[in-house]
Design brief:
Layout: E1 5-9, H1 20-30, E2 34-37, H2 44-60, E3 64-68, H3 71-77, E4 81-84, H4 91-98, E5 103-108, H5 111-116, E6 124-128, H6 144-154, E7 159-162, H7 170-175, E8 180-183, H8 185-188, H9 193-209
Parallel strand pairs: 1-2, 1-8, 2-3, 3-4, 4-5, 5-6, 6-7, 7-8
């Protein structure tokens, strides 16, 4: 599958008005095409059970479920793949465990990491962070639009931009070369996740029409 469009990353603390699952399903109705389930505090059993419930409903909609970090949860829930960071399980081992059909994304936080990833057959790179964001306080680099544009020139991979992206800057991020935008607060913290996702999706469709 191609990772593109609007990519939702869940954040339980950022879900101010509705539950994680309500946010996910409403956002999918608004146009989200990939959901990454990120749970830093849930016990493993609850994480797996949540992932299984999401996977069943998301697959019925043709939407991919990606698990953040946890290879074991992805396997147990039969998710579509995982997203890993530079300090998580090495990509080659993750690929061996999950198989060639799994979607595996890798975070890159510097130009050096991005260049090193050219030797890997990852499905996409998560370019982090484009702008400052309250959901990630340990940012090593703020890429900005110019940095993202350079990343597009240097990489053969699909790029998912993340960090501080919302309706006011999403068009510029797509224009700089992102294949997808990963959003957290812009959807999770919205009173109406469906509407928030739909607004972002309209921006994405507008970008596609001008390519």
């Amino acid at each position: 599958m191609k990772v593109e469009g609007i990519y939702l990353v869940t954040d339980r603390k950022a879900c101010l008005w509705k539950s994680v699952e309500e946010v996910v399903f409403e956002a999918v109705e608004g146009g989200v095409s990939v959901v990454q389930l990120r749970e830093k505090s849930l016990d493993t059993q609850t994480f797996v059970e949540t992932a299984i419930r999401l996977r069943k409903r998301l697959h019925a909609k043709g939407v991919a479920l990606i698990i953040n970090d946890r290879i074991d949860v992805a396997l147990a829930a039969k998710a579509d793949g995982v997203h890993i960071g530079q300090s998580d399980m090495p990509y080659k081992l993750a690929r061996k465990l999950l198989g060639k059909e799994a979607v595996i994304g890798l975070s890159v936080e510097s130009e050096e990491q991005l260049i090193a990833a050219e030797a890997l057959d990852v499905d996409y790179l998560g370019v982090s962070a484009i702008f400052p964001t309250p959901t990630k306080t340990d940012i090593k680099r703020q890429w900005g639009i110019d940095g993202l544009r350079r990343a597009r020139q240097l990489s053969r991979h699909r790029l998912v931009a993340i960090g501080g992206i919302h309706t006011e800057n999403a068009a510029a991020v797509f224009q700089a070369g992102a294949d997808a935008i990963a959003v957290v607060s812009a959807v999770c913290s919205a009173r109406e996740p469906r509407q928030a996702a739909a607004e972002l999706y309209r921006i994405y469709r507008g970008k596609k029409q001008h390519v």
